[in-house]
Write a structure and sequence with these properties.
Elements (H helix, E strand, L loop, with lengths): L2 E7 L12 H11 L3 E8 L3 H14 L2 E5 L10 H9 L3 E3 L1 H13 L13 E3 L3 E3 L8 E5 L5 E5 L3 H19 L4 E10 L3 H12 L6 E6 L3 E10 L2 H19 L3 E3 L5 H11 L4 E5 L5 H7 L8 E6 L3 H8 L3 H7 L4 H15 L3 E7 L13 E8 L2 E8 L4 H22 L2
């Protein structure tokens, strides 16, 4: 089964105002056909640079798809660059030109002379009609059985052309294959720790392919099996995934893509549980994550942002003597905050976060030290964490570990 590369063409995509969404669409469509996208690249409006990228891609990969750069102006360079990379000439296609002229007539517009550039076709290419725009696409098969596609940049034009013109050609050309995926999200472990634990399993397989993605306290595992039938692909995943699940155990919090806050809300609602939060260093971030989930009002009762010691004492009933002895960033204060918010609100679970997010420490604890507390009818506990990163990352990690500690507490209740 051939692999594919996608080249998105246009200097505007290298700025901050435009995002290449076409490659996401194309990847999804190719995956359904069993084609793996192995590389993507954004190239500005430079003929020589683009021609070099196309030539390099064709040395590596069987299918190369270009999106954009088929307009009428001088900075629309895709046709020229592909022709240069293949060492082919171009000619003006009479049928393509007639279709462009007819589109202008239908819209009661005068066609500029420059629009004739869009009718230039690379030697040996099949023209792909574009009823949604003026830029026809092109389909090229090279002497060494590589496939090059030139598709328009506007998404509605590209999607229509792919579904009407490209997909039938690919289906006729490709052997039937299917891709099946398994997806896990993991909390409470670093990327290197996850890899060290599961590498002895996944490294034995080239199919399925394993990808590990790291976020702020959130590791994602992707397994992609590619076979001629869905049943074969599912069988491969059924061989690998149970081994992974056994190694990771309850560190896996999601196998359907759900976020940690979505998982926590689902658990609480399933058990008719309720939660309230007491936050210091995270400044409301924990409550914001929980309430971002639709349906969270059934289980989230509210919270306190007790940013000062006085607020911890007045609103949560934390003892001033405890703060004086252990500091506001301590296991003892985290426990007292969790108990206090639970007592004040009458919820099943009280969760607290206190820590030093920096850039300077106010408690004497090192920047990056956080304590997370959870209280329920069985009592209360708190754990110390030392996080790396800047202020925003530290606050995000604080909420992540608080959610995971709550998740585990709910699960342990049976």
């Amino acid at each position: 089964m051939p692999d594919a590369e996608i080249l998105a063409v246009g200097s505007e995509l290298l700025g901050t105002q435009r995002v290449d969404t076409n490659s996401l669409y194309l990847t999804g469509k190719l995956n359904v056909l069993g084609v793996e996208v192995v590389q993507k690249c954004v190239v500005g409006d430079d003929r020589a640079r683009l021609a070099n990228e196309i030539a390099s891609a064709l040395r590596r990969t069987e299918i190369v798809i270009l999106s954009g750069g088929l307009g009428p102006t001088e900075d629309d360079i895709t046709r020229d660059a592909v022709a240069a990379a293949l060492g082919r000439t171009q000619y003006q296609d009479a049928a393509a030109l007639a279709a462009i002229e007819e589109r202008f007539r239908r819209n009661n517009r005068k066609m500029a002379e420059i629009n004739k550039r869009q009718a230039m076709v690379i030697e040996g290419a099949e023209v792909l009609p574009n009823p949604r725009g003026t830029a026809p696409g092109q389909w090229i098969r090279t002497e060494d059985c590589r496939t090059v596609m030139l598709l328009p940049g506007p998404p509605h034009e590209l999607k229509g052309m792919f579904e009407d013109q490209v997909q039938p050609r690919l289906e006729a050309m490709l052997p039937k294959q299917c891709i099946e995926t398994a997806f896990y999200r993991i909390a409470g472990m670093g990327e290197s720790d996850v890899d060290a634990l599961i590498a002895p399993v996944y490294s034995k397989y080239t199919n399925p392919v394993t990808t590990i993605l790291a976020g702020a306290g959130d590791i994602q595992l992707h397994f992609r099996a590619r076979c001629s039938t869905t049943e074969e692909a599912k069988s491969l995943l059924a061989e690998v995934c149970p081994q992974i699940e056994k190694l990771l155990g309850d560190r896996i919090y999601s196998n359907d893509g759900a976020s940690l806050e979505e998982t926590v809300v689902k658990l609480l609602r399933a058990k008719n549980g309720t939660v309230a939060v007491a936050e210091s260093a995270t400044g409301g971030g924990l409550g914001a994550r929980i309430t971002s989930v639709a349906g969270s009002s059934a289980c989230f009762m509210g919270g306190f942002i007790t940013y000062t010691n006085e607020m911890k004492e007045q609103l949560l009933g934390v003892s001033s003597e405890v703060i004086a002895e252990y500091t506001e960033v301590s296991e003892q204060v985290a426990v007292a905050m969790a108990k206090g918010v639970r007592d004040k609100t009458g919820v099943g679970y009280g969760v607290s976060v206190t820590g030093e997010a920096g850039p300077e420490s106010g408690s004497g604890q090192p920047v990056g030290v956080f304590y997370v507390g959870v209280a329920d009818e069985r009592g209360a506990e708190a754990r110390r964490y030392q996080f790396p990163g800047d202020r925003a990352r530290l606050r995000q990690l604080g909420t992540q570990w608080a959610l995971d500690m709550l998740r585990r507490r709910i699960l342990s209740a049976g």
